[in-house]
Design brief:
The chain has helices at 13-19, 60-66, 95-98, 110-120; strands at 2-6, 23-37, 43-57, 74-79, 88-93, 124-127. It is α+β, with helices and mostly antiparallel strands. A 6-stranded mixed β-sheet has the order 4-5-1-3-2-6. The longest helix is centred in the C-terminal third of the chain and has 11 residues, at 110-120.
Length: 128
Amino acid sequence: MAVAFVYGTLTEPDRVADLLESYVFVGPAVLSGLHAVDGDYPTLAPGGSVAGRLLRTQELDRLDEYERVDDGLYTRVTVPAEESLPEVAVYVGDPDRLDANANWPGEGPLERRVRTYLRENTVRVRRR
């Protein structure tokens, strides 16, 4: 089963229940190294931290559809977790398409810039 860190609309139990057939909220968590930025939908930007929830599910493909990963609206990356958690999936939205004030360093597609940032900086999920 995969674990995802959710920080926006997917922290709402009713929204998740409408989307997924099988899931468990593992509990509150903090993502360090990235912070939330408001736009048309919430996204993340380098630095800081953001509170959210850990969501365990076998339906990451459904989350990908919801976040429009194939369309490039969001990209799914994995970040290390502290304690006894496996790596955690995190969704990062395209700030240009979401009208969000976020700047990812580097050039090229968002996914490449996010992955480069994650490789070069300490970004971790921990339970709260």
